[in-house]
Amino acid sequence: MSILQEIYESDYHPMWELEKLPPDLEKKRKAFYADLTAIGGEALFQRHWDFLCEMERFTDYTNFRQGVRLGLYLMLELQQ
């Protein structure tokens, strides 16, 4: 595992609170999942949720890596 991934995988908690979904989006999300469960059943809902989590984990790490890379480039630029 790379050092960058170790930092990403750690128990780091930012000092600021993470933003929550606005109430109207949260309501739409809950309605969508209720419909999905009603139409396809709990098993389909769980498969869908697991897939979304896997995709989000990949994109979160990719965004994290790009952010660290940008930060490093900015620090190197300041040294010149």
Short description:
The chain is mainly α. It has helices at about 5-10, 25-80. The relative contact order is 0.09.
Explain what the structure shows:
It contains 2 helices and no strands. The mean pLDDT is 85. The chain has helices spanning 3-9, 23-79.
Poorly predicted regions are none
Helical proportion, percent range: over 70%
Seen as an oligomer or otherwise, the chain set is single chain
The percent range for strand residues is under 5%
Q: For the terminal residues, how far apart are their CA atoms?
A: 31 Å
Mean pLDDT: 85
Spell out the helices and strands N to C.
HH
Topology:
Blueprint lengths: L2 H7 L13 H57 L1
Keywords for this entry:
single chain, 80 residues, mainly alpha, 2 helices, 0% strand, elongated
